[in-house]
Structure formats: C-alpha cells, structure tokens
Amino acid sequence: MPESILKPEELRPVTELAHKALEQLDRILLGRKELHRLVLIGILSRGHILLEGLPGLGKTALVRTIGQILKLDFKRIQFTPDLMPGDVLGSHILQETTSGKRELVFQPGPVFTNILLADEINRASPKTQSAMLETMQEHSVTLLGTTRELPQPFFVLASQNPIELEGTYPLPEAQLDRFLFRVMFDNVDVDVLNQIISERRRGELPAPTWQMERADLQTLFQTMGRIYLPGPVSHYIARLVSATHPGAAEATGPVNSYVSYGASPRAAIAIAEAARANALVAGRPSVGFEDVKTVASPVLNHRLILNYQARFDRMTPSRLVSELLNQLDETGLNLPKDVELAHA
Amino acid sequence: MNSTHATALQSFARNLQWLLTLRLAVQLATVWFFAWGVVILALRIFGVQNIYWLTMGLLAVAPLALVASWRAKKQRAPLTKLRASYDRINACGGIIMSAETHDVGAWMLQLPGVATPRLQWRSGRALLLLLSSTAFVMITLLLPDRLTHLPGRRPLQIGQIVQQLQAEVHMLTQEKIIDAQKADEVQKQLSQLQDDSLGYDPGKTWEALDHIKQSDSDQARQAAQEALDKTASMADAETLAKAMEQAADSGMNATTASQAAQDLASMLSAAKLDSGLLNVQIPPALLAGLNGLNKEQMEKLLQGLEANKSLLSMDMSNLANLKMIDAATLGKMQATGMCENPSALADYLCSCTNGCEASVCMHPGKGGPGRGGPGAPMTWSGGASEKDLKFQEHAMPPSAHLSQAQLVGVSKAAPQLAGSDISAEHGVLNSAAAGGGAANTRVILPEQRQAVQTYFKRDN
After folding, report:
1. In 10 A of CB B171, how many CB atoms?
2. Which of A303, A180, A289 is nearest to A237 (CA)?
3. Which of residues 119-138 of B touch A (CB under 8 A)?
C-alpha cells in the first residue's frame, strides 16, 4: 500500500504524457483509438502483447510507431519454421583476438532491444518459440551458463495471423500466458479507410511530432507504482479470476460447461497491473471496478482453455468473459436477487 | 471524504438496512401466516372454536418485525462493501473506496455529483405471497364451524331409523308383546345411539341398530305366529260351535252332542288361549260348562271367539302397518280366521248316530275312508277339481335298440362278461402290420366311402 495517494497535481502531468503518446498514435495510425489505448496500457504495465489480425491491418506499423514515440530501440524478427533459437537470442562465434588468441565471443541476437516485434510468431518451431520464454518472463537470456540482462524496458509485441494455419505451430499455453494482452485487430470502417487512402500515399506513415523522453517513460512507470488498488477491487479481481475455473464457488454456468482450465494467478496480477495503467491513463489515483472490466477481456481471453463442447457451440473466450463480467457482483454485496441497485 | 458523500453513503446504508428489514419482515410474516393458518385449521378441526384466542396469533407480526430487524442488522454488509457499491454506482473510480484508508480530499472536487444509490425491490412476488397467506389465515378464521368438522366426527344421520324403531318398540309395548321394562331399555339404547353415533365409525352403530331391528322383528314374527295359531284354533272352535248349535236344532243325539262338547273343550284347552304373548280372554264360566251350554251361552262363546279373533287381527294389522310382519302373513291371518262351513259339519254331526269324533274332522289327513286322502285338507262339501292340473314330466333314459345288442351266447346261467375278448372294433386295418411297421389307421369319412368302395370293386 502506498504511503499516500497521488495528488491531482502529481498525477496530472503524467496523465498528460500518456495522453500525448496516445494522440501521436491516433494521429499516425488512423481509426484504432481503443486499440492504441490498450497497447499503451500494456506497455505501462510492462507486459507483452500478442496482436492478432489479418495481414495489412497495421500491426507492424503500430509497433514501429510506438518505438518511435517512446524513443525506444525497435527490432523485428520474421518468424519462420526454420528460424533457430540462436537467430533470436544470439550465439557465440569463434573469433580471433588481436593477440592471436581464439575465443568464443557472444553475438547478441535481435532480442536485445527494447521493443521486439515477433512477426507471425506462430510460424516458428516450438523450439524457437520456447527460446522466447525466458526473455519474456525474466527479461534475460542465458546461453552457455551466462545470463545476460536485456535492455530495459523490454516488450515483446508479437503478431499472429488467424488464417493460413498450415505450417504453423500454435503457441503453447505457457507462452500464451506470458502475454499480458491478446488484442484483436479488426477491420476499420469506410470513413477511416477513405482517410487512409487520402492521407497515406503509398502507405507512408507521418513522422511523430512529439516523442517521449526516457525520463518521462520512467516517470510513467514510477507513477504506475503509486496508483492505489483498493481492497474491494483487489478482491473483485481475485474473485473474477477464480470464477474462470469450472467448479469454483462463483463460476457461472457457461464457465462450468465450456472451460477446461481457468486463468492462472499470473492473469490476476496482469489484470491488477493493467487496471492500474487504465486508471493512470484515465487520470485517477485509484483503481475502480470499471478499470478492471476494461482490461479483463484482453487479459483473460487467451488464458481460458475451452473444451470441445465450446467449439461445437461456437463459444469464444471473449463471450465467456463478457458473461462472467455481467453476472459477477463487483462488490460482493450479495444483495438478494429481487433487490437491485441503480444510479439515482 | 467529503461530508456530502459521507452523508449520502450513510443514507444509502440506512436505506439498504430498511429495505432488507422490510423484505425479511414480509417473508417472515408470509411464513407465519401460512403456519398459523394451518395451526388454526388444525385446532378448529379438533374442536377448538374460540376464535378470539386464535386471532391473537396474528399479533405475532410485531415480534416478527423485531426479529426481521435484528436479523437484517446482523446480516448487514460491512461498510467497506457498501462504500465499494456506492463508489461503483456513482462511477467514482475507486476514490470513495480509497477514502477509507487515505486522504482523498483533493480528489473530491473532481468526483461526480452526490447521488444516493437507488434501491429497487421487485416485491411483486413477495407481496403476492403475503396477500395469499393473509387471505389463507383469514379464511381459516372465518370458516363456518360446519366446514371445520372432520367427516368422521360428524354425527351419523340415523334419526329416521331411530324414530321408526322407537315406533316399533312402542307398538310392541302397546300390544304387550314386550314388557314395559324391556321397552324402556330399548328406548334408552336408541336415544344413546342417536346421541353418540359418529360418522367416524358407523359400523358399530349400524350393528346395534340392526340388532334392535332384528329383535323387534323376531318378537313381531313370534307374536304373528302365535296369533296365527290361536286364530286358527279359535276358527276351528267357532266352526265346531256353530255346527253344534245348528246340529242341536237339527236333532243331534245326546251322545254326539256330548262328544262334540268334549271335543270343543279339548280343542280350546289345547289352543292355550290364555298363555303366550297375546292373551285371549274367554269367560271361564263358559269354558267350565262347555258340556251343558245352552243356546244363549253358546252365542256368548261364539261372540267371545269372534271378538278375540278381531283383536288378534287388529294387532296383526298394526304390526303390518309398521312393516314388522309382511303382507302375506297378514293375509294368511285373515284367511285363517275365516270360519269353515259349519253347516256341512252340522250335517255330519247329525249323521253320527252312535257318536263320532268331531275333532278329527278339524284336522287334515285323518278323515278316514271316504273322507279324503292323506295330506289333503278336509272339506265337507264339493270335491277337488283336477282342471288345469299338470303332472311334472320326467324324461326317461333312452333304451338301447335290440339291433345294437351283441349276442354273446345263450345260457340258462347268469350272463358272464367275456372280459378282454370283447373289444370295440373300429376298422379292419387296426393292428395290421405292413412292411414292418404299423399301418396308418384312418377314419373314412362318409364322402370318401363311395370312392373307397369303387376302388375295391374294380375288376383288375
């Protein structure tokens, strides 16, 4: 618990920084304000994000733009089936020194960056995918017994294509769990398309007019740590994650019917962090229930393992989470069913 | 926390407390009314008719309200949850919740306006149940007494039967068929049956009533039989007396007259008119001097017999009116009371020069030669007609035709059966062996007979 809650004058400049970053993103990439907000929340939460969408929707552009705005180092790996772990993490190369002595010198891979775009991550072999586990969780790389820290901050923004699944390797649950969000890229509407056609000749993106300094980013991270998570909200997050497990006390009927395995404690931590970031972006010093509801779906929808019955009934994790959020009483007041609470 | 928000939060907590108390009170009252209604119904069925005390149960609503208040207070949600609910409803973004542990005074101005959350209770079902339970308890209180009796506790409707039996007993007493003491006992028994009989166990009542009815009927039947016998005796005596009166005028000799008088005396004595259920009173002076009754005394005797017959007939009519004896018995009584043809008997008495036994002529089957066969009623005039009489026909067993008889032999000795030598022959192929196996015996049907005969008659 922080010693004191943030004061308005302390929080306001930080929120403005976040808003400026969002404005730049919205200006450069048209028509995806909610998505940009989620990605920024993910970055403020220091989480990795899995972007899922069809080719050409702007996944790479988004990541590149974020790198530019945040003034962070950005690298991209195009994952292919023959990509080896060494291609990602780096490898030791036998080199001759000036003294004529030969020794193995570590050549860092593209993972040594601030923002790593793992494009079409599901096309890499499980071996290569597994090489990412340590980098994503520990922010370090261990080769030949030597652990090397990755530059901070470190984010993996991975993308995967929901179609053309031939020759792909679905991400294991352990790796999926390491992504804070799974964000869906939807098609933009006609007006946005028209604006893109008019303003983006040959797909060239405008340069950002404002960039965040490293110090500002650190301030954002520090402020994140001071956003207060009230006890009832924390309890709500715990109940929410618990309710994703079939057979739990507050599990809903659809959860019991369709879910094989619910979300992990890591998901609860992710919701809490993301809710904090959402409160910060909203300019509030404390987390409310609405913050949890905003981030719950992208946090949980790739963490619920559904059974075959769900496939037959075309039940999706997003729908399950949505129903769960609607049915679970946030405050745990447990009013009788015939008593309703409404805004005056 | 801002005082206005604090006030609104307190108001919210208070409203919630009141609402939950009211809701619980309605539920408890509903349950109580249903339960108390059942208790009232049960008590009224088992005889408690004091509505005033039963109504007092409705006052239990007041303690129930206190119980509801106490329980609602005990189950009151902690203030943290109420604060969280207030925060959520007013979209305060966690600031109200944070106010519990932090100073958020600087953020209060940025919160939306104060609004106490609105509590809405969908009370339709609960109130409907309360109304139903209230109506139920009112109905149980206002239900008429006759509807609260169990069918088994209702008195058995035997008034009409008891009334009829009482009339029968009264009639039997009046006719002196049963004595007054026994009649009183039966009347008391009937009254007690009418008072104590319950629909719960009607078998015993019906059994007792059947017993009394049977007893009355037996008494009446016995009296009717006695009256029948006495009437028959008196009718016979009356016939003989009238015959004696007529024969005396026609020159009956003294010996016959004396013998007839003895017969009359023995006839009246054997009838035992002064004993039994129905006493018949004949003046004893007349009975004592039957041998020397003059005409006037004979008339008195005849009047006495006639009067007693009428009395017995009237008694039987009374019993028949109450259906204690059937119409056939009454008709038989009236037929028995008819006097036979005294003139024929008078002629017979006159014809007896050496004296004759007049009483034998009064009993059937002993009339002697020329006076009717055994078993036939004795009459002194006319003869029995055989018109429209039919004998019962019996079919005799058919006798076997002689042509079907089988000659076994001719002997003077008693015929002897040949035993197994005599057997029925059903066909020539029986027991025949052909090809190592038994021949198949078939019955030749009539329509096949011609074809078989033609086959055996062919030339080749």
Report:
1. 20
2. A289
3. 119-123, 125-126
Please indicate if any CB of chain B lies within 8 Å of the CB of A1.
yes
The rounded distance, in Å, linking the Cα atoms of B231 and B226 is 8
Name which of B23, B86, B98, B125 to mutate to probe chain A: the one with the most chain A Cβ atoms within 10 A of its Cβ. Answer: B98
Nearest residue to B200 via CA among B128, B142, B240, B150: B150
The pLDDT value recorded for residue A59 is 81
Question: Among residues B226, B256, B287, which one has the least CA distance to residue B359?
Answer: B256
Q: Cα-flanking dihedrals φ and ψ of residue A94, to 5°?
A: -75, 120
Choose among B19, B81, B97: nearest Cβ to A286: B97
Confidence band of B15 (pLDDT split at 50, 70, 90): confident
Of A282, A308, A285, whose CA–CA distance to A295 is shortest?
Answer: A282
What pLDDT digit, counting tens, does each position of B414-429 carry?
A: 656 555 555 545 555 5
ipTM of predicted complex: 0.80
Query: Could you tell me the pTM of the whole model?
Result: 0.60
Helical residues (DSSP H) of A157-315, grouped into ranges: 173-176, 190-199, 214-226, 231-242, 253-258, 265-282, 289-300, 308-312
Environment class of residue B390 by beta-carbon count within 10 Å: exposed (0-12), middle (13-18) or buried (19+)? Answer: exposed
Please provide residue B164's backbone torsions phi and psi, each rounded to the nearest 5 degrees. Answer: -65, -40
- Beta-carbon contacts of B297 under 8 Å, excluding residues fewer than 6 positions away, are B286, B289
pLDDT tens profile B32-86: 889 988 888 888 877 776 777 777 777 888 888 888 888 888 877 888 888 888 8
Q: Which residues in chain A (289-318) have CB-CB distances under 8 A to chain B?
A: 289-291
Across the interface, whether the CB atoms of B115 and A343 are under 8 A apart is answered: yes
Is the CA virtual torsion B289, B290, B294, B299 positive or negative?
positive
Query: A100-109, B241-250, B343-352 — which is least confidently predicted?
Result: B343-352
- Closest residue on chain B to A278 (Cα): B93
Residues A151, A112: contact at Cβ < 8 Å?
yes
* Residue A192 burial by Cβ neighbours in a 10 Å radius (0-12, 13-18, 19+): middle
What's the angle, vertex CA A191, arms to CA A185 and CA A195, rounded to 5?
Answer: 90
Around A195, how many Cα atoms within 13 Å sit in the side-chain half-sphere? 13
- Mean pLDDT rounded to a whole number for chain A: 86
Span B302-307, average pLDDT: 83
Cis amide prior to A153 (ω within 30 degrees)? yes
